[in-house]
Amino acid sequence: MSSQFELAQNPTEPISSVKFATNNPTRLLVSSWDRHVYLYDTHAEPGGKLLQKFEHRAPVLDVCFGRDDNEAFSCGLDWEVRRIDLETGAQTIMSTHSQGVRNVLFSATHNLLISSSWDSTLHLHDLSQPGEFSAVRLPSKPFSLSASPTKLVVAMASRAVNIYELEKLAAAAKTGEEEVSVEPWQQRESSMNVQTIDFSNDGKYVAIGVSPGFEDGIDDVPDGVTKVFIRELSATEASGKKK
């Protein structure tokens, strides 16, 4: 039988992202428009326990864990990508975009941090080379990032979807060049306005969230146009190998 409870000491404004730690199933990060990232132990006591909160200069749009459960990365409307030491609270600016930063994603396999911004770029951070990053230009404004073990999917405005090989992105990041060109593994134009997308942990399925009002600025979207689709990938797509 399932159960549900509300965390104590919730954010005071809308929540933008929630992420569980990889190694500790009760360690949770929450980012919010109230300009904070919150770190909880969800089962330390009834209602969970707020361990720390980390202030930013502007609303925080996304957060993720890094190489271990004491490292996090955040981004938001201050245009900055930040590393947060969850033990000491120290924050380090990894890079600065020229508009708000919508998503951050960490690939442990490739030791690669990726951020996507409304300035239509990705920033690639090879964590073995602190202080350096490389930019990849996108054809449209990005709305969502997701990764399988081998691929990165970027859902963008104008119904564009680019799929990149993480291995090639990691290699580009290691060059240390300010701007790099990485050819997508696949480029697609969706028949739908994709707003969010995510892989299953085994890389065999993709969940696609469609919300046309988000892109078009429509508050009252007609019934039936906001949908979630599940797509099963072919063996070739899941493995990341071209025929």
Give the uncertain stretches in residue-range form: 213-221
> Structural class of the helices, strands and pairings?
mainly beta
Number of strands: 19
**Distance from first to last alpha carbon:** 45 Å
What is the string of helix and strand elements?
EEEEEEEEEEEEEEEHEEEHEH
Helix content: under 10%
Coarse shape: globular
Largest sheet: 4 strands, antiparallel
The strand line-up of the biggest sheet is: 1-2-3-4
Number of distinct helices: 3
Q: Look at the structure and give the mean pLDDT.
A: 84
Quote the beta fraction: over 45%
Rg on CA atoms, Å: 18 Å
Draw up the topology in text.
Blueprint: E1 15-20, E2 27-32, E3 36-41, E4 49-55, E5 60-65, E6 71-76, E7 80-85, E8 91-96, E9 101-107, E10 112-117, E11 121-126, E12 134-137, E13 142-147, E14 151-156, E15 160-165, H1 166-174, E16 186-189, E17 194-199, E18 205-210, H2 212-216, E19 227-232, H3 235-239
Antiparallel strand pairs: 1-2, 2-3, 3-4, 5-6, 6-7, 7-8, 9-10, 10-11, 11-12, 13-14, 14-15, 15-16, 17-18, 18-19
